[in-house]
Amino acid sequence: SLSAGLDLPGRFLFATLTLMTLIAILVFIEEAVYIYRKIPSSKRSIIIWINAAAPVISTTSCIGMWIPRSTMFTDFTAGIFFAIVIHKFLMMMIKECGGQKVLLKRFENGHFTISTGPCCCCCLCLPRVPITRQTLFWLKLGTFQFAVFRPVLIFLSIVLWTNGNYVLYNLSPKGPELWISCFIGALTLFALWAVGIMFRKVRILLKCKNIIPKFALYQFIVILNHLQTTIINIFATQKIIPCAPPLSSIARGSYIAQQLLIMEMFLVTVISRVVYRRKYHDLEPPECVAEEPEDKKQPP
């Protein structure tokens, strides 16, 4: 078994990381109970979904660490869950503005700046798009397509893998792995672009609700769960990470990625509890904001 092949420091490391995963799960459960009791029902499920991202990734990484053969399934499970969380984060920003109708009323004559990352941060010549019901629909579609198509592509990958046609970390253009990964990467960029466009517009309005730390935590999970893991796997495939018998380079790279994710997601879970647990006041209705200057002009 795996535990029998570990020395004393290895067992201590595995036990510590497992304990961190269990603490992250308990912190999330306590936070979910608090959100269920204190947060309005319209925002409750969205905030719970977003807070669950880090504990779920930590749990799947812990399972993959103890059961190496399950790595493909645990990585795909975390990927599917986070695809849904990206859509939920966009919906949370709309909800925090008061909903779609109130948001359209607040930014009645406003425009979206689409020259933002990760797709068009260098294309400063792109025109600004007016904020309408149609543009909001396209932004929501940009994240919703990722929540739908990524699970479908992952299911296709698992089917091909069971048939022997899908090989992990195979960068050959003749295999399906490279093309599926590129397609998922393109869908990811479009989803992150939609979230970035919305955040750039509402970050000042929602500053009182700490939207900037919340967005930073969300970006932190994106970078760690996708970019960091991809870089480590590429290093392992190119033998930059040396093998350590009985572990091959790829297996060792997978272990390193999972162990780093457990520690990082533990920190994200604790910080998320602090950021989302604060009590925030609801924004004033657009009518009150518009009438406030006139009220100040009236004599007492």
UniProtKB/TrEMBL annotation:
Q: How does it sit in the membrane?
A: Multi-pass membrane protein
Its keywords, alphabetically, are: Membrane, Transmembrane, Transmembrane helix
Which superkingdom? Eukaryota
Predominant location of this chain?
membrane
Q: Specify whether Transmembrane is a keyword of the entry.
A: yes
Compartment(s) of residence = Membrane
The residue ranges crossing the membrane are 12-34, 46-67, 73-91, 137-158, 178-199, 211-236
- Carries keyword Secreted? no
Which GO cellular component terms, listed alphabetically, does the Swiss-Prot or TrEMBL entry include? membrane
Which Pfam families does the record associate with it? Solute_trans_a
Q: Which SMART domains match?
A: Solute_trans_a
Protein name (database record): OSTA protein
